Amino acid sequence: MNTVSENTSKRKISVIETGHAKNVANFQELITFVTAYGTAYNPSKESLKLPQLNALKIAAETQLLDVIAKNTAYNNAVNERINAFSGLRIYATRLLNALQTTNATNETIGNAKSFNRKMQGKKAGTSQIENNLENPAPKTISSSQQSYDQLIQHLAGLKSILETETSYTPNETDLQVASIQAKIVDLQLKNTTVVAAYTTISNARIARNEILYNANESLVETAKDIKQYIKSVYGASSPQFAQVKGIMFTKPRK
What we know:
- This protein is 70% helix and 0% strand.
- The chain has helices at 3-36, 50-85, 88-99, 106-119, 145-164, 177-214, 219-234, 239-245.
């Protein structure tokens, strides 16, 4: 994707994320008008009463903050994984070079080269992700996720060859089999942490969307009912209805 497309996509996502907060802010504006009407605002529907409106607003704000926190945690996990996988291909080549200085047979070296070639193949992501809503967690888990799994498997395959070669005894600590195993464990941890963080942010979005849009008495639906009630009390041409009818609430596209 070129830079223009990336920037355009980022702006679209940013607008969507900002839209949730705007809906909550506009709901607060509705509550302000409702409060000012005093006893004239007296709906029979329980969900439209002022205490329930304030409770709904607070619950919506809480969900927005939860999404932001979990989005940041996801981005942090992604950045830690990027750092962990950084230089992995160079590391694999160093391991191969170390093996080639031993008494290993051509067949063993050939098998190691095969895993190294796989390591040098398809790249996993390498770009850093900032911890803010300009770079929100994706809506679905990326297909590139598989490439991280594959890199771990290829490194594990290379390690299995090195640990069975009795002449492979490098003095360099980071090239020793124990260090390779420790790296594999760390990579697996970083990878599974990203997957877990994605699940968490995904669930947080579901909870946010439920309270803002999907529930029978969601924030957006309640806002519509408030306007309708004010219209019924004061009339369609009243200044009171004019105050609230232009307060916009939008739902994100599915």
